[in-house]
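Comment thread on ticket #2218

A.B. wrote:
> Attaching the input chain for the structure job we discussed in standup.
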Amino acid sequence: MAIVTIFSGSYCRADEVAKMAAQRLGYGCIGEELLEETSKLYNIPQERLKRAMYGSPAVLSKFTHEKVRNVAYIRAVLALHVKENNVVYHGFAGHLLPRDITHILRVCIVASHDYRAAIAMRSKGISEKDAQRIMKRGDNECLEWTKYLFGLGPWDNKLYDIKIPMHESSVEEAGEIICANAAKEALKTTPRSQRAADDFVLAAQVNVVLAEEGHEVEVSCDHGNITVLINKYVLRLDHLEKELQRIAGAFAGVKSVHTRVGPKFEPPAIYPPKFDFELPSKILLVDDEKEFVQTLSERLQTRQMEAAVAYNGEEALSLVESEEPEVMVLDLKMPGIDGIEVLRRMKREHPHVEVIILTGHGSEREEILARELGAFAYLKKPVDIDVLSQTMKEAYRKLNLARTGKS
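C.D. wrote:
> Ran it. Output below, let me know if you need it in another format.
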């Protein structure tokens, strides 16, 4: 019997279609439950798992392996469901399943803009403008996910076996289309495809232990023989290969480990033109005003400073636990954990991180408190980008002086 994966845009009634198809096929149906299982099995908050799939690279730290680890956890749990067959899965994780499992029907559900907007407005009781905003955010999440995995857009035909436009189909009709295709001879489980599903379980588990050691690699398996594909360039390839072989080879069920470089294994340019060694390389921007902080990130990038972004205090503290930035630019007025509390925790738990306050609603009293807590600087919005860049450079210089023991 075929496994069915469904990927969709928001407000396409895909959940209803998935349940309808599962009922008619006599299959189990899973969606967000996959994240619940992963959270319990690996003791990871669901919010972090959601961030791994739905968060854009700007939200996720560019200098941490959190996304790699959490995607590995999700893949490993999904692999256990796939091994059992007879399941309809609706969600982003279906794209993690390898192509050599040939009894998978990959479905894409789409709908016209007007169709989706009408459902969003009706189901949430919101305006058309708000519906468009929510839809755009959802479409961006879909785009970031497939770009991350394949370098392709989310609706690219190469990713799917069938595509169903819901503005032309009812839920019942869409379910019938899926069932008819799932019953085709080409999608029947064969000994070879079942072996591929079993191998995927072991490959996913090995990928977890490698990800936990900080390795971002691709892992495949053939009858217990593991192949590790290295796509990120390293200077000491032989050293990395030995480490990967040691870690993977120690996992139960692994017969052998082979490593090879992939098509993306290319040495980077040594330094970009006019590279400024006085600039921080690990920057975290923390602000709940999404448009402002995204624009700020883009403007800093034009000055050779790439920054990760967090949209609230809780997210910022979570990212810092994975790996410290060198400089943090922090807003004060945020929902939940506010800027002052983030600053207090940063200087207590990560005292070497230089924190620059950038706020549009600060008071003299807050400025005094921020400086007492250890803020490097206190700036007000709107800020001149050159002033902010220079302040960040000075903060980084202070950090470097502290590292070398100079005054």
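A.B. wrote:
> Thanks. Noting for the ticket: The two ends are 70 Å apart (CA to CA).
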